[in-house]
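Here is an idea for our session: we take a single protein and study its fold together. To get us started, please write out a protein record for me. Once you have written the record down, we can walk along the chain together.
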Amino acid sequence: MLAAVRKRARMPWRPVNPTHAIERVRFIVQFRQPISEKLNEQLKRAAGRHSNETRMVGPAPMQSVRFGIQVLPDGQQQVLSPVTEGHGWQYVRSSSVNQPLEVLGVQGNQIVYETTEYRRWNTFMQRFSKVAAEAIEVANQSLDTEIVALEYFDRFYFEGDREDADPRLLLSDIEKFLKPDAASGRTMWHLHRGWFEKAADGDILINQNFDVTEAIPPGGTSTVRTISIFTKAELRSSNHVVDGVPMADLLNLLHDSTGSYFKSALEPSMLASVGMYEDDKA
């Protein structure tokens, strides 16, 4: 049946980038204790120490319960608009047209690093080390880590007619979880799943969301059918060892988990379009 569906489709699902589907990546470290004013100033100095090299601009104050890069329905990005609640600061690197590309911020008891320029895991780690690692290390010397999480936001656009935008061409076994109209692509839908899985030093919380909506692709002028995939892996100190573990080791563990479940969600025929293959993890 699926082979027949593939034959009817006029054009394939296309990832948002030429070699992968990642719109943005977010890394979150949450501490058990609040960040004191003294520590906050130390974090600002640590975050800005290499700002000339990294081209991160700040620290800019913010007044928001959330911050970072927001993806709008048309696929464009913007820094979240401030509101009168909360407090914090951020370093931001923007494009020539003032689109945010990268954010390092502190708010409440969290440090968040976010980028829209993901290429490969090794280049992400190199950039993370330059922009965010020192600030996180400074905080780790004074606070106990409560949560460490890695989030991926992936998106695909369909280049053909809406009636041909069958999600089963992209997502593996999705018809098991949806009614026929949704599984065939005739309607838009949202699907969430989450669970704990065992790891060597405890449990990992996995969350994954799938959304079929309408959006304007980069460089486009009209809306098309799009599928976004949000994949999150989270370590909590209550059920996994995090304190004293090198941050790079935790990141690699989270990356392996998110990559594995993103890969398993795709039809095998789509893996090459996002730089993945049956015998690798990223």
About this structure: Residues 1-8+151-282 form one domain.
